[in-house]
Design a protein that fits this description.
Layout (H helix, E strand, L loop, with lengths): L4 H6 L1 H7 L2 E4 L3 E7 L10 E7 L1 H11 L4 E8 L2 H13 L6 E4 L6 E5 L8 E4 L10 H5 L8 E5 L6 H16 L3 E5 L10 H12 L4 E5 H8 L5 H11 L3 E5 L5 E5 L3 E4 L12 H14 L4 H15 L12 H10 L5
Parallel strand pairs: 1-4, 1-8, 2-6, 4-5, 8-9, 9-10, 10-11
Antiparallel strand pairs: 2-3, 6-7, 11-12, 12-13
């Protein structure tokens, strides 16, 4: 067993250390208005980066020294090819990224680097990643994986939802750890009722569930009961739930303990990317055998660094960068 009481208790340590992560969900192109601070409607230049919640999490993992593969679909066009090229630049395994035509399109986000009143416009009509199928999932050998990480956005379409649930079942049968980033985006869903049912079913199939207070409120069907549903998930099925509260920090619940941690303050340039960076830093830390609280703090530090930089995937810290940041700030506020 690796070190850390919670990992030993859960049996997560050896599995997380054994192989690559498979991240299922959306990857796309992010266009950032340039220079930083420029409003979108005033911009004449844009910087292009890898984006999408799953793409960003995979990048965050590889920048923390982990192996990561992406499981998704992209469009058979220039934007899809941009995403595939970006995966290669980050060292992300793209063998399970299928291409599709049929008029479907890779996700495109146009974003600002602004701390206040930050605008983000995401184009998701005919989303290529929603074309993921059970056949795509069947081609993955989860027996060699440390963990499957799913993002809740993949549940918003019936076909992609079926593939995602199949992936969770196959990963669990193979002994891999199942991780969920709730990643609730209301515009993707027909109704909050459908979103609650689908996300709760997926969360109940996972070992680790990470989300913010709004997302756990969705799972509970009541914002006031979000922390309660996090605790209930751990009592019934999950091993860890991380309930994030923005500037108020996070409450982490495991089989043996519950604790609250603060945040690391930085000079924020933008509010986006923090959740993806947190997940990458948190999971990489667990995979290295860190105790649960240390892993949460490492994820929190990664989130603080990302919001202080341009972009999401390129803003995710490397191991030396995160080590230096934490050495200068032993404890969050």
């Amino acid at each position: 067993m690796t070190q850390g009481a919670d990992q030993g208790e859960m049996g997560l340590g050896p599995r997380l250390a054994a192989g690559p992560f498979v991240v299922l969900g959306r990857a796309g192109m992010d266009l950032y208005a340039d220079p930083p601070g420029t409003r979108m409607e005033d911009a004449r230049r844009f910087e292009a980066h890898l984006g999408g919640s799953a793409g960003n999490i995979a990048a965050a993992l590889t920048r923390q020294g982990m192996q990561a593969a992406l499981l998704t679909r992209v469009s058979d066009d220039a934007v899809g090819r941009f995403v595939l090229a970006e995966l290669g630049r980050y060292g992300i395994d793209g063998r399970h990224v299928g291409t599709i035509g049929q008029g479907l399109r890779t996700s495109l986000a146009v974003v600002e680097t602004r701390a206040e009143d930050c605008q983000s416009v995401i184009y998701r009509n005919g989303a290529a990643d929603f074309a993921l199928t059970c056949d795509d999932v069947a081609a993955v050998d989860f027996a060699g994986c440390a963990a499957l990480v799913i993002t809740g956005t993949a549940l918003a379409d019936a076909g992609s939802r079926q593939a995602t649930m199949a992936a969770l079942a196959e990963a669990r049968a193979a002994g891999a750890v199942c991780v969920m980033d709730v990643d609730y985006r209301p515009y993707s869903w027909a109704s909050s009722t459908e979103a609650q049912a689908a996300n709760l079913a997926a969360a109940q199939a996972c070992d680790i569930v990470v989300g913010n207070d709004v997302e756990f409120g969705l799972l509970a069907g009541d914002m006031a009961k979000g922390l309660g549903v996090a605790r209930d998930l751990v009592a019934r099925s999950a091993s860890i739930a991380v309930y994030k509260m923005g500037e108020k920090g996070a409450v982490t619940v495991s089989k043996s303990q519950e604790f609250t941690t603060g945040i690391y303050r930085t000079q924020a340039l933008k509010p986006t990317g923090a959740g993806d960076a947190f997940m990458g830093g948190f999971l990489a830390s667990l995979a290295r055998g860190d105790a649960l609280r240390a892993a949460v703090l490492r994820g929190s530090a990664a989130a603080a660094l990302v919001v202080s930089r341009v972009g999401c995937a390129p803003a995710c810290p490397t191991i030396p960068e995160l080590d230096a940041f934490l050495a200068a700030r032993p404890e969050p506020i």
